[in-house]
Amino acid sequence: MFADSKGYSGFSVDDLGKAKEFYGGTLGLRVTEEEDMPHLQLHLAGDTKVLIYPKENHEPASFTILNFPVDDIDKAVDELAARGVRFERYEEFEADDRGVVRHAEPGTPSIAWFKDPAGNILSVLNESA
Predict the structure, then answer these.
(1) Is 48 helix (H, G, I), strand (E, B) or coil?
(2) How confident is the model at residue 36, as a pLDDT?
């Protein structure tokens, strides 16, 4: 039924201006706005789009809403930290001093979680680790 549909994901934020600055400025993604619609579109590699929309009673997602695979997680974490991004630590995962969780099991990615200004959880991960 939807095999040929170009589906896309979306999530809410409490402040579109802060979201635009974070995703466009801090993360360096291409972000566009529609004049007649109060939302943003993130443009990711592979012509993938993600909708960001304002929600008055926004509550941050309690799970990772967007993952960014990278070749060098240490470099990505250092660059994000230099841009003011703070990495999350979760009790059930042991993280290094950068906030990177490195799994010993083969095929399990190294990952570091962080939040956008609306409190939604994002990650950078190295799938080849």
Answers:
(1) strand
(2) 84
Would the pTM of this model clear 0.85, i.e. be above it? yes
Single out the residue of 54, 67, 57 nearest to residue 114, CA to CA. 67
Phi, psi (rounded to 5 degrees) for 125: -145, 150
Amino acid at 10: G
Nearest CA to 111 out of 67, 79, 81 is that of 67
Residues 28, 43: contact at Cβ < 8 Å?
Answer: no
17-65: pLDDT as tens digits: 999 999 999 999 999 998 888 999 999 998 889 999 999 999 999 999 9
122: tokens are 């994002």
The contacts of residue 40 (CB under 8 Å, 6+ apart) are: 16, 19, 20, 23, 31, 32, 33, 51, 52, 53
Q: What is the pLDDT of residues 3-27, one digit of tens each?
A: 888 888 999 999 999 999 999 999 9
